[in-house]
Amino acid sequence: METKGTLYIVATPIGNLGDITLRAVETLKSVDVIAAEDTRHTAKLLSHLDIHKEVVSFHEHSSEREAERLLGMLEDGRSMALVSDAGMPMISDPGYVLVRKAIDADVPVTVLPGPSAAAAAVAVSGIDCRQFLFAGFLPSKQVQRRRELVRLAAADMPIVLYESPNRVLDLLEDISAVIDPETPVSVARELTKIHEEVLRGHCDDVLSELSAREMLKGEYVIIADAHRNIREMEDDELREALAGFIAEGMSRKAAVDFAASLYGVPKKRVYKISLDMGM
Ligand code: SAM
């Protein structure tokens, strides 16, 4: 019987190329093929490491057929390293489909740990993260994002979030509005890079500091020490939430029930607000 190749899940640097591990270098040198989220991006890393290998593409939008093709290579005995553009594959990055297929096909799967922005941001945050909730990117629509924040805050532990520079202010506004303006936060940007910076403080203070900047650049990890600090919602905020849920297609009853359980507000109060709104 033919021996199957091993799938190596390999973490790569999140900025500073010096953070590649010795095992990662050895493995990238020794495998038959490298499956990369973005082949051009990975080509730069490989060229820095003087590694010349076959690189195939495997990303979020790869088809089922493509995943099957890569699985076929493993089943034919070829060893493969799976990398994403930065950090650990599968942490807000592609890879799951291939790893799941490999596991189901009894292909050996192993992992080479290394950099990940979440772990780095937790370590440098100054927030007690003995337990934390990693939630990655929240939805881009405000109503959904706020709803998700309330749900996450109920877990009673710091929430670790990824965000792009063009939405980081919106996210901090949401944390202030839904949880509390005084929520302790740590906003880490450009970790391991030249412009690495960590802003720590109350959410509204960090928000003012970032808002005053002409331009927001880089990559951000936001940690909100939410605990069970969800503040009492004002009537107009409940009105806004109800209107959002209705706009999403919920019936009035569903929207009232949902808002009441989400914000921990008596159903009677939300129902009355919905009546005042003429719903
Ligand atoms: N797989 C990666 C990991 O293990 O961290 C995450 C990939 S995700 C597509 C990219 C997001 O990670 C960025 O939008 C940012 O939130 C965060 N990130 C990546 N590199 C970072 C860095 N050097 N500093 C701060 N955040 C970073």
CA radius of gyration: 22 Å
N-to-C SSE string, H for helix and E for strand: EHEHEHEHEHEHEHEEHEHHH
> What is the first-to-last residue Cα distance?
68 Å
Helix content: 40-55%
Largest sheet geometry: 5 strands, parallel
* Overall SS class: alpha/beta
State the oligomer: single chain
If strands are numbered along the chain, what order do they take across the biggest sheet?
A: 3-2-4-1-5
Shape: globular
Q: Which molecules other than protein and nucleic acid are bound?
A: S-adenosylmethionine
Number of helices: 11
Contiguous runs where pLDDT drops below 50 for at least 5 residues: none
- What percent strand? 15-25%
Give average pLDDT, whole number: 94
Question: Could you tell me the number of beta strands?
Answer: 10
Description:
There is one protein chain. The protein is an alpha/beta fold and 279 residues long. Helix content is 42%, strand content 17%. The chain contains 11 helices and 10 strands. The chain has a 5-stranded parallel sheet with strand order 3-2-4-1-5, with helices on both faces. A hairpin with a 7-residue loop joins strand 8 (184-189) and strand 9 (197-202). Helix 3 (64-75) crosses helix 4, helix 6 (142-153) packs across helix 7 (168-179) and helix 10 packs across helix 11. It is globular. Residues 14-15, 84, 86-88, 91-93, 116-118, 162-164, 188-193, 219-221 line the site of S-adenosylmethionine. S-adenosylmethionine (SAM) is lined by residues 14-15, 84, 86-88, 91-93, 116-118, 162-164, 188-193, 219-221.
